[in-house]
Amino acid sequence: MDRIVYDRMAAHDSTHWWYRARRDILADYLAREGHLPADARILEIGCGTGHNLPMLGAFGTVEAIEIDPAARAIASERLGKPVGAAPLPELTGVERGAYDLIAVLDVVEHIEDDVAALKAMGECLKPGGKILIAVPAHQWMWSAHDVVNHHHRRYSKATLGAAIGKAGLKHNGLRWFNSLLFPLAVASRVAGRIRGKDDSDDSPPPGPVNALFEAVFRLERHLVGRVPLSPGVSIVTLASVK
Question: How far apart are CA 167 and CA 93, in angstroms?
């Protein structure tokens, strides 16, 4: 990712509506669908500045990996211990057969060989372990945001399901989320293209709008995995070894 992406993450990951609501949605989804042991060993790969680590820590003991040095330093401070730097897809030095849960939250789209990355993650799971995967959806929504984040792709349910299957994994169902605000996201992308202003700035909007978006997005914590949602900006699933 471009340096500015990490800088914005560090500045806004505790206040931006998307980060805040997404953490709650993923926590509720994991609590309902994860069926993790009480003493779960958890690894977050591509943890960025570590803003998801406290959420994941509610489910067990957390370790983390981040390849960007500045983001890794922030994440290490938040975690209270060193964060590793093993890159995907190899995950060199990461213990195999060791984890009850691996979290890759908007990470797989950054990896050119996503199948090899998912296969390596599967090798690091304990028997019965799971991978929590969240990815951006809809290739037609490609924008400057994807460019500065160094994405290789956005996913459909079909392409994500195919990658999971080719990696020797199975999933518990591919779920849309960030669906309630999806029409606004589409309108924003279309308007930007019409104006010729494809903006990569993902700083939070003004306070009242930020609070409104957070409240609307957070409503999905009660829905994801329980009822089918209409297409959204993202897809989430839990994968495990076949």
Answer: 20
